[in-house]
Amino acid sequence: MLRNGRRAERVGRATTSLRPRTLLLGLLVLVVFVLLAVLVGAGDLGWRRVLAEIVAQLTGGTSPLSEREAAIVWQLRVPRVLLAGLVGAALASAGAAFQGVFRNPLADPYLLGAAAGAGMAATIVVVAAPSTTDWVVGPLPIAAFAGAIGGVSLSWMLGRSAGGTGTATLLLAGVAVAAFLTAVQTFVQQLNTETIRQVYTWMLGGLNITGWKDVWLALPYVAAAAVVLCLCARLLDVLTLGDAEAASLGVRPGRVRLLLLTAASLATAAAVAVSGLIGFVGIVVPHMIRLLFGASYRVIIPLSLIGGAVFVIIADHIARTVMPGELPLGVVTAFAGAPFFVLVLRTSRQVRMP
């Protein structure tokens, strides 16, 4: 018991310290990229004029932009950049949590059926809902959110009914649920082939039709999930000692995993609801943080929130500026993430998961 306590103390001291300097530097980098993404966009407003507009709004001065140009900045660019940050933070922190819970360097935020559930629900809405709606928030993000939560809930219930909450059981349950929900989605699509293009556009991911309402839709869920994941990061470090040793230290592994998976799935569902399916963020960012700053989840999860936000902001900026026709955001993250995924796959035997 004493040996376990000393070992847990080493986990708590030697490898889990997030230096304030590192956190402040990460936040500064995030602010810089947010500002750059707002200053430069597809519309040629001139970064100096946009900067003067921001200064004018902060100081009460005179804006150099017309009313239409100011609307582009404050109603299109700013909410899109903020939403990109929220989506990236949600997916990266969820990926870090899934990798810790399943002790698998290839674990993904969509692992337990979140993507399949969201895709099925989105397809049903596209087929059944009218082309226009008077809802304050459109039915598609609400349905995608509910579908993602529903997919994860089905996986959890199936895993419990199959004999427990072990990681292997949950993983297999997630595979089974995802296969079934994907089959339902495909069946609905084949009944309404004229909607296939719209569904696939959503599944490729993107933020091209977002606004402030989407920011307010995602913000509370992402914030709540981020708080839970950060607070539970220390417990996730303790779980790296093994279930028996964690239990001897007063930690209940089953409950901790349930809490972490619930928070990570909530963050994933919120991201999917407003952006569609954006891959590789939850794999690339946590691994980069792990390589640069160590294996402690008290470091990985907070920095993954920041790093994920920066990653998706950069990817979305590329998607909307690299060519006249906007690229799907999921395509840009795939270009960046697929080679990294291959590298992780090739070296997964040498990757030491805590």
Automatic annotation (TrEMBL):
Could you list this entry's UniProt keywords, alphabetically sorted: Cell membrane, Membrane, Transmembrane, Transmembrane helix, Transport
* Transmembrane regions listed in the UniProt entry: 21-42, 81-98, 110-129, 135-158, 170-188, 215-237, 258-289, 295-315, 327-345
Q: Which family does it belong to?
A: Belongs to the binding-protein-dependent transport system permease family. FecCD subfamily.
InterPro entries recorded for this chain? ABC_BtuC-like, ABC_transptr_permease_BtuC
Alphabetically, the GO molecular function entries are: transmembrane transporter activity
**Subcellular location, record wording:** Cell membrane
Q: Which organism is it from?
A: Amycolatopsis arida
Q: Please identify the protein, giving its name as recorded.
A: Iron complex transport system permease protein
Taxonomy of origin reads:
Bacteria, Bacillati, Actinomycetota, Actinomycetes, Pseudonocardiales
Q: Name one GO biological process term.
A: siderophore-iron import into cell
* Claim: S-adenosyl-L-methionine is one of the keywords in the record: no
Task: Indicate yes or no for the key word Transcription regulation.
Answer: no
Give the PANTHER family listed for this entry.
ABC TRANSPORTER PERMEASE PROTEIN MJ0876-RELATED (PTHR30472:SF25), FERRIC ENTEROBACTIN TRANSPORT SYSTEM PERMEASE PROTEIN (PTHR30472)
Q: How does it sit in the membrane?
A: Multi-pass membrane protein
What cellular component GO annotations does this protein have? plasma membrane
Pfam families cross-referenced by the UniProt entry: FecCD (PF01032)
Q: What is its main location?
A: membrane
